[in-house]
Here is the input.
Amino acid sequence: MTEAMKTVEQVVAAIQALDLDPIKLKLMDAEEGQGWSREYVERMETAYKRFLILMVKFPEETIAPTKDVDKFWHAHILDTIKYAEDCQNVFGYFLHHFPYFGMRGEQDAADLKAAAERMHELHMREFGESVENKAAWCAAARPAATDSAWCAAAGAAWCAAAKSANSAWCAAAKPAWCAAAKPAAAHSAWCAAGKPAWCAAGARGLDTARRPQLARAS
Here is the structure.
């Protein structure tokens, strides 16, 4: 069946039917992937498929995935044979990834922020719930991500994006830590207690240079 013969509903069904088990297996690997837990990688599979569905349903819109959905997309692309076959079977063409969106100046960064916000709006409309780990996207795309009021509200979701090795700490962590919105050095007492590497990663998580990427189909 060619692209022209497929309805939106058929493409959406094909997205839902994608076998992404090999991608999830690699993402769960601590060395070769992201070290994600089984539960988390399942959620990211759903989030990734929803992102693809939104691109199909709203082709005129410019949207951007969250950071972890983008990582899932990257892992899919790296399986070059499977990705090419999946694209042809689902869309009828190769879905390209444009990795520079948001990096080419202030206006480009503002456009990325708007694309991420539009992604959230459409996600709410279509699926009736917030984007998974919206806080992780905000840490990358919002210049005001260090604002304490915002951080206090989003801390729990950001914590959920942490690697599984930190899940115990995240389960016990309180938004007050995030509400402080201070550099990792300000938390030296906690860091010295046993997780300096995580603290360093957490500080980088607020780096506005690390932004999600734009999807563009050719």
